[in-house]
Amino acid sequence: MKDMGFRKFKKYLQIFLQLQRINLMKRMSYPVSFIMSCSTVLLTMVLSLLFINVSFSFMDNLAGWTYYQMLAVVGSYMIIECIMWAFFGQLNAINFHIMEGTMDGILLKPIDDQFLASFWRGDPEDFMRLITGSALVVVSIENTIGLDFLNLSLFLFLIFNGTVILYSFNLIVRSVSFWVIDGSGLWLLMERVTSNSQFPVDIYYNKIVRGALTYIIPLAFVATVPAKILTNRDIDFQLVELSFVMAIFFFFVSRYFWKFSLKHYSSASS
User: Fold this and answer.
1) Which pLDDT value is given to residue 18?
2) What average pLDDT does this structure show over 206-216?
3) How many Å apart are CA 250 and CA 211, to the nearest integer?
4) Considering the domain boundaries, does residue 269 fall inside one?
5) Can you give the residue range of the structural domain that contains 24?
6) How many domains does the chain have?
7) How far is CA 104 from CA 5, 119, 182, in A?
8) How far apart are CA 203 and CA 193, in angstroms?
């Protein structure tokens, strides 16, 4: 039984690596376009950082967050955003697959449909976000509590949880495409909402709004909680545990909703 599980894991890992290789080859076949895409991503992140610098030129802290702690929040969000775009860029194309009738080609493959729909295509140029985000995290560490192995380990664990939460939330929203084929307005709204993860939820003084962004749309666990654990010596282990619970909960909810949505899919051949 364990041998079968290992072989299945190895099979999916090989498929994942092959898909990433194909994505990179596609992008690198047009080097000028790839360089321009990387430059655009880098410029976007520079503008985000510029906004933080301009804001802190007029104040000492934002809802109790210092400048370097804010860098940790922004850096954490960039790292998670990199993973989302570089590996799960295909989620944005689910509605196009349904509209064009190419979803059948994904569903008929002898592999888990959610896995393939998630990893089919990515944007390698978004690894620029990982480089920039990691640099901001390093600067934040050096100017707050310094390097601490426990804090850093928990931070990486929370980044993983944040990625799972953001992925699950996106999958749930994208799965609505099986009922509403062209939901571009909804996608745009959700992207605007999730982009607020680059700011600590503490900036929302209304308790109802802050609670909604913590438990209903769990933006707090995407970047705020990882940054808080990384830059504070007093570790709140309840937040770490809650982050793990939220990641598990939202992943299985998204998995169930994806399978439920597929039952309502009318294939192009039907």
Assistant:
1) 84
2) 78
3) 16
4) no
5) 2-262
6) 1
7) 27, 16, 18
8) 15
Query: Is 268 within a domain?
Result: no
- Confidence (pTM): 0.88
Does the residue 270 lie in any domain?
Answer: no
Q: How far is CA 103 from the centre of its chain?
A: 23
Distance CA 25, CA 223 (A): 31
Place of tokens 């939820």: 201
Label residue 161 by pLDDT band (50, 70, 90). Answer: very high
CB contact at 8 A, 172 and 252: no
Counting other chains too, the contacts that 235-243 makes at CB distance below 8 Å and 24 or more residues apart are 235/150, 235/151, 235/154, 240/154, 240/157, 240/158, 243/158, 243/161, 243/162, 243/165
- Tell me how far apart the alpha carbons of residues 3 and 16 are, in angstroms, rounded to a whole number: 20
pLDDT at 234: 83
pLDDT, tens digit (0-9, with 9 covering 90-100), for 117-142: 888 777 788 888 888 899 999 999 99
pLDDT at 245: 93
Q: Give residue for tokens 């944040």.
A: 162
Q: To which residue do tokens 């998995």 refer?
A: 255
